[in-house]
Specification:
There is one protein chain. Helix content is 40%, strand content 19%. It is of the alpha+beta class. The chain folds into two domains: 46 residues, SH3 type barrels (Roll), CATH 2.30.30.730; 88 residues, Arc Repressor Mutant, subunit A (Orthogonal Bundle). The protein has a five-stranded antiparallel beta sheet with strand order 4-3-2-1-5, with no helix packed on it. A two-stranded antiparallel ribbon has the order 6-7. The longest helix is centred in the last third of the chain and has 20 residues.
Length: 146
């Protein structure tokens, strides 16, 4: 599901990919449902392609979202975009203790927390998305063997 959830540079919030064509994509804002065109010249990133720097290896954003959901017991995050940098760093350190403090900035964390809250309000279940991915990965070899 996160492959169809997009961040569009210069536009606030998150968008769901509705359709694609040769020169543009049509996306729908998750918070308000408005549809807008996004041209190929605009920078667009799928959330499935985003990962967080850690001292070990990069952690996919989906995994970070799941850890936030566990910490918040399925609710919204306590710190938000208006929180102080020290509060945001302290919170993120509890969620992902080994994040790279040199490469991950407060603005990045605030954006991640904002995205999490938007996805939560939109009814996206991260565990359910992960389970579908694992199921499809498990069934593909059986189909290829037959």
């Amino acid at each position: 599901m996160l492959t169809k959830i997009l961040s569009v540079s210069g536009k606030p919030g998150l968008y769901k990919l509705i359709s694609t064509s040769k020169n543009l994509n049509i996306v729908e804002s998750l918070p308000d449902g408005k549809r807008i065109p996004v041209y190929l010249t605009e920078k667009v990133v799928a959330l499935s392609d985003v990962s967080i720097y850690t001292t070990d290896e990069d952690v996919p954003l989906r995994e970070v979202f799941r850890k936030i959901k566990e910490k918040e017991n399925g609710g919204k995050t306590a710190p938000g975009s208006k929180s102080s940098n020290s509060e945001v760093f302290r919170y993120f350190g509890e969620v992902l203790p080994n994040y790279d403090t040199d490469k991950v900035y407060a603005s990045d964390i605030k954006k991640i927390l904002s995205w999490y809250n938007i996805l939560l309000n939109s009814g996206i279940d991260f565990e359910q998305v992960e389970a579908k991915t694992e199921e499809s990965a498990g069934t593909e070899p059986e189909n290829n063997e037959k």
